[in-house]
């Protein structure tokens, strides 16, 4: 029986993303009322810029989660990518293309390492990523002594500014490096997951790896792709962060994993695999950003921010798990 | 989908489909892959007669367009209808390949089981005792409806039907894992409500799952741990501790009673053969002193030689006064080892006869029609 | 058929030895001693080294026990450090706020109350973990990640990152005192390890935990209330974190929201090295304790060699990978 034209909307209405949207709109409305500063172009622009780092990483993590794995070593990967790329750029000179190439390369290699350890040695992905987090980070600090890099190439420090437009009192806004990178990452990830065969295979593998294998999917190749993708995202995110902070700080990124995880699980991705959407991740990121921003704007000490993040993570995963359980209990059983 | 003869909305989640629906989707996928060689493993397990006919016609079409089809099934009539050549495997070895025209169902069955199967009713002719379990008008939305029957002490009742007919769902309801929406279950004449399987076990109802490897046993754990899993609290002594001796003697007793071939009870249970594994499962449940034992496909994955051993245990259970409900796909198995036979179709109980009053063909009709 | 008594004796020994894991660990320990004795020499054998090991081990050991419990059930408890810190801060708060100036009944009472409060907080976190994991069906990794952030967030929010310090004598004794030359903290570890070992080996609860770790669904089908078992397990795990909190706060004579964060990796490492299967279902306390000793020996050696703490972290990571890969390398993979 063919569904009516409005059926897709009905399905959306029941989805996780819909509820997220409601919560976000409600939050925006109440925050907008409570604090005039919230709904300003400047604030929103700043928010988007400062959360680009988390957002890009969240996209990488989303792909990993959908594939049924997990990775928390990406902050270490990002730190390494950042340091290597900008050291090379400072020493030998570079341009935008080469700088991104190096970062992506480093990130990809470290991601591939994760994949090899998980697949070839048959170690649970959580344990591998806890281990590699410490290996990458430990070695980075050991070899670099934890020194910051303050002098960046001029062109890098200046950044990018496309699509300028005017808004309000003579201030111009546009897509800076952060926003551009975030947008491109969203686009690429969306294309990968929704428009390619590989994307479907990733969803399948995450839901039922055995069946996927029997269908002839190249499990090892898919996993390699997925973790490399995470690494690549980490590389891109690291440059975005370095440009924003105008420095490379090897010790600062590790510890931010939780924000990324929060964004992704808020968006409805599950550790079980096979579940999660780019839209959901975007909404999750938005919710996280608004929440943390709201805390600051309302005058609550930022010391309380982690607490709220944790609370939100717990509530969100509980809700996701409950709705998943209802879905996974088939009414017709063999 | 049109080729296979079904109409489904492509956006539906597979988990929302019935078993038959899922099987048809899998068939569609196989066809979409444009294969030259198509291997179908038990494709008709949950299809109705009508759907099976459609599938057989489909296979004929495929044959005519040059695709080679390997049709794996234990349904002899379907095999003979579809195939040009039939290969018989038994206990992991090839028995032979024959032109379909030269053999019939009886010969095939003989080749499959290795015995000149003397078709006779093997259930002990004990006069079954009092009614232990009485089910009245039991229904659960989406699974089954209006099911009523009785189980007597010492009686072996066979239950058969297509996959998806509601047999396992019914069994799970009796075991407290699938609470029904209406109707009643009475034990010894008293109505009971079963909300968890722990309650069911406490009242003496035990369930041997058809999925031995993932639900019946914990493969990586020791034989000893698996056997004692249902009676841990009983084995505990002072301070709630289970002594090694108590554990060992419990295991030894059941190993001896059920003739389980074990070299070391601390070995993982996955090292045992299928038949021995099933005995471990039976030991686990018999230790709970059940009054009603529900066996779901008890001889699946058990080789021919060991099946008899399982039947002997079932007979022994009946002799000891346990009411046995044996669910099975194999009509001969159900017919020749039960006192009475129940057939379920699309969630309803359509037949309830004594084994002596019916035949294999009649049952097949009732199941597949 | 062999001789029945002789067979059971041999089986008993093999059973105790944990099918080779314990034997391997003992060999490893001896080998390490030899290597370090040669490379570091005199300093390694000093009483100081031994003593420092004996003092550092207990808190790590108790935390590792907490992690092990979660691992056995096929899960993970990432919140143990954060729970310990939160519990520690609770105890510290009660102690510094309510402790009367002079010794007496009230003085003792407040200390007992403080510790009880810490345990209560830890148990509460355990309840949240257990409930979310067992009854809501959330993956243990995500659930404990959530409670970890929650606990840490609460701790930071309340203390703004400050340290609370200055505790009465008896408390400090727990972490730093000795009884007949044996550090009291070590005794606390033993007092935790023994009941946990007995529970796991010889109670219905223990057997159920192992079975759930290997196959939760099948265990449920056998009539076990897996949800109740998991709830109890995570409460136990968090309670152990609470005990660790007491030891930590006693040893440092202070409490803080961010202590011991690098311990998380080491507790997982100790468990896996000690023979705990990261997929769940297998592992013994004896193995864990041996693994801890090995890790402490390595750690002390690193200290004496003046190895950078970051290099140490990287090495721990490498060892974890190596150890977790052993089952595969030995060809005994289950997956």
Supply the key terms.
heterotrimer; A: 334 residues; mainly alpha; ABC transporter involved in vitamin B12 uptake, BtuC; two-stranded antiparallel ribbon; 4% strand; globular; disordered C terminus; C: 335 residues; 4 strands
Question: Summarize this, please?
Answer:
The complex is a heterotrimer of chains A (334), B (369) and C (335). Helix content of chain A is 71%, strand content 4%.
Which SSEs are present, and which pair or pack?
The complex is a heterotrimer of chains A (334), B (369) and C (335).
Chain A: H1 7-14, H2 16-34, H3 41-50, H4 52-66, H5 74-92, H6 96-120, H7 125-144, H8 154-158, E1 161-167, E2 171-176, H9 177-195, H10 197-207, H11 209-214, H12 219-245, H13 257-266, H14 278-297, H15 305-328
Antiparallel strand pairs in A: 1-2
Helix pairs in contact in A: 2-14, 4-9, 4-12, 4-13, 4-14, 5-6, 5-7, 5-12, 6-12, 9-10, 9-12, 10-12, 13-14, 13-15
Chain B: H1 19-32, E1 37-41, H2 49-64, E2 68-72, H3 76-82, E3 85-90, E4 93-99, H4 105-113, E5 131-140, E6 144-152, E7 156-161, H5 167-174, E8 182-187, E9 190-192, H6 197-202, E10 205-208, H7 212-216, H8 223-228, H9 232-235, H10 244-258, H11 274-286, E11 292-296, H12 304-319, E12 323-327, H13 331-337, E13 340-345, E14 348-354, H14 360-368
Helix pairs in contact in B: 11-12
Chain C: H1 4-16, H2 21-40, H3 47-72, H4 80-98, H5 105-135, H6 140-159, E1 164-165, H7 169-176, E2 178-179, E3 182-183, H8 184-202, H9 204-214, H10 216-221, H11 226-252, E4 254-255, H12 263-273, H13 285-304, H14 309-329
Antiparallel strand pairs in C: 1-4, 2-3
Helix pairs in contact in C: 2-13, 3-8, 3-11, 3-12, 3-13, 4-5, 4-6, 4-11, 5-6, 5-11, 7-11, 8-9, 9-11, 12-13, 12-14
Structural description of this entry:
The complex is a heterotrimer of chains A (334), B (369) and C (335). Chain A has 334 residues and is mainly α. In chain A, helix 9 (177-195) runs antiparallel to helix 12, helix 10 packs across helix 12 and helix 13 (257-266) crosses helix 14. In chain A, a hairpin with a 3-residue loop joins strand 1 (161-167) and strand 2. Chain A has helices at residues 7-14, 16-34, 41-50, 52-66, 74-92, 96-120, 125-144, 154-158, 177-195, 197-207, 209-214, 219-245, 257-266, 278-297, 305-328; strands spanning 161-167, 171-176. The two termini of chain A are 25 Å apart. With 369 residues, chain B is α/β, with parallel strands linked by helices. Chain B folds into two domains: 14-113, Rossmann fold (3-Layer(aba) Sandwich), CATH 3.40.50.300; 123-368, P-loop containing nucleotide triphosphate hydrolases (Rossmann fold). Chain B contains 14 helices and 14 strands. Chain B has helices at 19-32, 49-64, 76-82, 105-113, 167-174, 197-202, 212-216, 223-228, 232-235, 244-258, 274-286, 304-319, 331-337, 360-368, and strands at 37-41, 68-72, 85-90, 93-99, 131-140, 144-152, 156-161, 182-187, 190-192, 205-208, 292-296, 323-327, 340-345, 348-354. In chain B, strand 5 and strand 6 form a beta hairpin. Chain B is globular and about 75 Å long. By secondary structure, chain C is an all-alpha fold. In chain C, strands 1-4 form a two-stranded antiparallel sheet. In chain C, helix 5 packs antiparallel against helix 6 (140-159). The radius of gyration of chain C is 21 Å and the shape is globular. The two termini of chain C are 34 Å apart. Mean pLDDT of chain C is 86; it is low at 1-7. Chains in contact: A-B, A-C, B-C. At the A-C interface, helix 7, helix 13 and helix 15 of A face helix 6, helix 12 and helix 14 of C.
């Amino acid at each position: 029986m063919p569904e009516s034209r409005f059926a897709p909307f009905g399905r959306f209405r029941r989805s996780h993303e819909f509820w997220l949207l409601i919560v976000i709109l409600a939050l925006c409305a109440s925050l907008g009322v409570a604090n005039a500063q919230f709904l300003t172009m400047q604030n929103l622009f700043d928010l988007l810029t400062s959360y680009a780092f988390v957002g890009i990483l969240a996209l990488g993590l989303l792909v990993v989660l959908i594939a049924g794995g997990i990775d928390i070593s990406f902050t270490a990967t990002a730190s390494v990518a950042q340091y290597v790329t900008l050291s090379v750029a400072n020493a030998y000179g570079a341009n935008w293309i080469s700088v991104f190439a190096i970062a992506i390369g480093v990130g990809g290699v470290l991601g591939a390492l994760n994949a090899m350890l998980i697949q070839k040695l048959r170690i649970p992905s959580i344990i591998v990523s806890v281990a590699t987090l410490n290996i990458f980070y430990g070695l980075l600090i050991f070899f670099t002594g934890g020194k910051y890099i303050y002098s960046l190439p001029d062109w890098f420090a200046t950044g990018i500014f496309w699509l300028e437009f005017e808004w309000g009192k003579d201030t111009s806004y546009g897509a800076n490096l952060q926003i551009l990178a975030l947008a491109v990452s969203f686009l690429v990830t969306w294309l990968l997951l929704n428009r390619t065969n590989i994307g479907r295979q990733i969803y399948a593998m995450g839901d039922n790896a055995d069946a996927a294998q029997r269908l002839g999917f190249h499990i090892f190749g898919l996993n390699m792709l997925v973790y490399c993708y995470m690494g690549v995202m980490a590389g891109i995110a690291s440059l975005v962060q370095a440009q924003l902070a105008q420095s490379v700080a090897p010790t600062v990124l590790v510890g931010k994993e939780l924000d990324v995880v929060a964004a992704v699980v808020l968006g409805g991705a599950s550790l079980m695999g096979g579940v999660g959407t780019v839209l959901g991740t975007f909404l999750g990121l938005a919710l996280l950003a608004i929440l943390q921003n709201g805390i600051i704007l309302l005058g609550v000490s930022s010391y309380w921010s982690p607490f709220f993040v944790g609370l939100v993570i717990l509530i969100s995963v509980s809700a996701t798990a409950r709705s998943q359980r209802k879905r996974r209990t088939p009414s017709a059983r063999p | 989908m049109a080729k296979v003869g079904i109409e489904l909305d492509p956006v539906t989640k597979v988990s929302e489909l019935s078993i038959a629906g899922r099987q048809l989707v899998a068939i569609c996928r196989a066809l979409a892959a444009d294969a030259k060689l198509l291997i179908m493993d038990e494709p008709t397990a949950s299809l109705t007669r009508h759907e099976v006919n459609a599938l057989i016609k489909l296979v004929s079409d495929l044959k005519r367009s040059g695709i080679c089809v390997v049709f794996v099934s234990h349904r002899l009539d379907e095999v003979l209808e579809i195939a040009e050549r039939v290969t018989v495997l038994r206990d992991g070895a090839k028995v032979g390949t024959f032109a379909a025209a030269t053999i019939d169902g009886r010969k095939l069955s003989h080749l499959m089981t290795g015995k000149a199967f003397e078709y006779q009713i093997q259930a002990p002719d004990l006069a079954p005792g009092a009614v232990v379990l009485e089910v009245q008008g039991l229904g659960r939305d989406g699974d089954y409806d209006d099911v009523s029957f009785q189980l007597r002490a010492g009686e072996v009742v066979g239950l058969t039907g297509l996959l998806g007919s509601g047999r396992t769902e019914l069994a799970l309801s009796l075991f407290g894992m699938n609470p029904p929406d209406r109707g009643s279950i009475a034990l010894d004449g008293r109505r009971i409500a079963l909300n968890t399987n722990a309650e069911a076990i406490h009242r003496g109802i035990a369930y041997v799952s058809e999925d031995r490897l993932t639900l019946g046993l914990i493969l990586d754990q020791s034989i000893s741990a698996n056997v004692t899993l249902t009676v841990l609290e009983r084995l505990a002594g002072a301070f709630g501790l289970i002594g090694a001796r108590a554990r060992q003697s419990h295991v030894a007793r059941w190993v001896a009673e059920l003739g389980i071939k074990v070299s070391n009870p601390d070995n993982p249970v996955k090292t045992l053969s299928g038949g021995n594994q099933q005995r471990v499962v039976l030991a686990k449940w018999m230790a709970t002193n059940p009054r009603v034992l529900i066996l779901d496909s008890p001889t699946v994955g058990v080789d021919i030689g060991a099946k008899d051993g399982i039947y002997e245990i079932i007979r022994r259970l009946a002799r000891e006064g346990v009411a046995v409900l044996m669910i099975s796909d194999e009509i001969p198995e159900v017919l020749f080892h039960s006192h009475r036979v129940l057939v379920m179709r699309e969630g309803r109980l359509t037949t309830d006869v004594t084994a002596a009053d019916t035949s294999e063909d009649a049952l097949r009709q009732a199941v597949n029609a | 058929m062999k001789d029945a008594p002789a067979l059971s004796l041999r089986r008993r020994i093999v059973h105790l030895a944990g099918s080779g894991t314990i034997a391997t660990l003992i060999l490893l320990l001896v080998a390490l001693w030899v290597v370090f004795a040669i490379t570091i020499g005199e300093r390694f054998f000093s009483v100081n080294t031994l003593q420092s090991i004996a003092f550092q081990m207990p808190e790590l050991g108790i935390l590792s026990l907490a992690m092990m419990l979660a691992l056995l059930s096929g899960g993970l408890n990432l919140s143990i450090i954060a729970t310990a810190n939160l519990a520690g801060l609770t105890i510290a708060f009660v102690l510094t706020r309510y402790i009367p100036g002079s010794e007496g009944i009230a003085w003792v009472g407040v200390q007992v109350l403080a510790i009880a409060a810490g345990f209560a907080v830890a148990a509460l976190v355990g309840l949240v973990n257990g409930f979310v994991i067992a009854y809501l069906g959330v993956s243990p990794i995500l659930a404990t990640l959530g409670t970890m952030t929650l606990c840490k967030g609460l701790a930071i929010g309340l203390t703004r990152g400050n340290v609370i310090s200055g505790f009465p004598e008896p408390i400090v004794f727990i972490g730093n005192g000795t009884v007949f030359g044996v550090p009291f903290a070590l005794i606390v570890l033993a007092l935790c390890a023994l009941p946990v070992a007995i529970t796991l080996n010889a109670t219905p609860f223990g057997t159920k935990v192992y079975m759930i770790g290997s196959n939760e669904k099948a265990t449920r089908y056998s009539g076990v209330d897996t949800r109740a078992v998991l709830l109890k397990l995570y409460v136990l795990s968090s309670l152990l974190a609470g005990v660790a909190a007491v030891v930590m706060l006693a040893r440092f004579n202070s409490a803080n929201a961010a202590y011991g964060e690098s311990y998380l990796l080491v507790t997982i490492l100790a468990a896996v090295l000690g023979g705990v299967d990261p997929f769940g279902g297998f592992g013994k306390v004896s193995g864990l304790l041996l693994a801890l000793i090995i890790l402490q020996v390595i750690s002390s050696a690193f200290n004496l060699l003046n190895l950078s703490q970051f290099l140490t972290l990287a090495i721990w990571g490498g060892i974890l990978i190596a150890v977790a890969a052993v089952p595969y390398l030995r060809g005994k993979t289950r997956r």
